[in-house]
Amino acid sequence: MSATALSAIPEIEACIHCGLCLNQCPTYRVTHLEAESPRGRIFLIKSAFEGRVDLASVEDHLYLCLMCRACETACPSGVQYGRIAEAAREVLGPPGPPMQRRITRFVLRKLMPFPRRLRFVTALIRIYQRSAILAFLTRLLPSGLRQKVALMPPASPAPWAPDADVLPAIGARRARVAFLSGCAMSLFFAEINDATVRVLRRNGCEVVVPRGQACCGALNSHNGETASARAMARRNIEAFPDDVDAIIVNAAGCGAAMKEYGHLLKDDPVFRERAERFAAKVRDAGEFLWAHGLHTPHHSVTMNVTYQDPCHLVHGQKVRGEPRALLHAIPGIALKEMAGSDRCCGSAGIYNVLQPEMSETLLREKMEAIRATGAEVVVAPNPGCMLQLRYGARRFGVPVRVMHLMDMIDDAEA
Question: Tell me, what's the pLDDT at 3?
Fold first, then answer.
């Protein structure tokens, strides 16, 4: 790679190699290797762009990163590590041996951008999960494949579909918002989409669910398929109306990706300005509700709850206090903070599938932190975190339920 290409990621020059990111990095805390730290990875990427090393030779180090962006929160210089890593991964393409690369590229290029294809694949998953014979045959798989199957979420009985494209506010209208139904959320967490829309409507929001919307493109961006991520961003910009007060997202990873559309399309003369306006309106559901003014929930929900900060909410979007404030607003909730609540649980999109050993190491640490709180429920407003923590509760025998923040509020308001 040439030094000329280095100018495409000016963020790389901001790193002063102070090392304050080291102990915030999940992989560095496990390995204690400089090459598995943000500082070390930035040095390797810069060396590759300057022609001193081959980027492909350091691929394993770059893809062991979870892209949790905890380093960005710790960095005094404001280094945007996520942008640096994604620029390098765009050159590398998807990780792993040739067969894994082909499968990952197929999923990211041929499935993720196409909602109908995703619905068809999910229908096959639904059949598999409801078939006792197929479930029995799963036991015959090698242990590595069985673990991957165990991570698979149960498909919703049917893909989420709103009653109408525009759902009126309940009571006086206080805002008009658009809602990202999402790919994972609509196919595997339809009940959470229902809860989110109910909460928004009860809090005076007219909710628009645009036709033609697609996956946000986060998985593509994180795994070297930036071109397809840009196409998905353009599709969403075209699909969402301009005359809304906010674009609401109930999945932390999606919200972080959509807030980056301005950067993703910075070189697109047609979409650059539209992408910046779009990104400026994106709000996490909890972030929006706290700023909007949550109606006081009617019902007491007496339980001990702990909160897991999704990485792309706390580090990517800098949303930390709002979800906790919403939990405190629910009568009867006792919030028990866990140690390292803003440390990654090891999900990180498809990281738990591609890097199972490191993922499970981080998950074990997370589940012990949850166990120590004595909480009955762990709240995690992101689908990847929810799946990982539910698997962790089974895997390590932690008696805890995993819920989305919108479910908690919906139960208290109902």
Answer: 40
| Residue 301, phi then psi, degrees to nearest 5 | -120, 90
Q: Note the pLDDT of residue 4.
A: 39
**Measured between alpha carbons, how far is 252 from 381 in angstroms, rounded to an integer?**
7
The span from the CA of 119 to the CA of 143, in Å, is 28
**Tell me, what DSSP letter sits at residue 20?**
T
Calculate the dihedral angle through the C-alpha atoms of 191, 196, 201, 204, rounding to the nearest 10 degrees: 170
pLDDT in tens, 126-147: 888 888 766 666 666 666 666 6
C-beta of residue 67 within 8 angstroms of C-beta of residue 341: no
> What average pLDDT does range 305-323 have in this prediction?
97
CA distances for 287 relative to 32, 93, 275, 414, angstroms: 35, 33, 21, 21
Q: What is the residue-averaged pLDDT of the chain?
A: 91
Angle formed at CA 313 by CA 227 and CA 309, multiple of 5 degrees = 135
Q: CATH assignment of 3-92?
A: 1.10.1060.10
Question: Is 296-413 assigned to CATH 3.30.450.20?
Answer: no
What pLDDT does residue 296 have?
Answer: 75
- Residue 384: CB atoms within 10 A of its CB come to 27
Task: Give the single-character DSSP code of 21.
Answer: T
This model's pTM is above 0.85: yes
pLDDT for 198 equals 97
CB 80 within 8 A of CB 88: no
Class of domain 166-290: mainly alpha
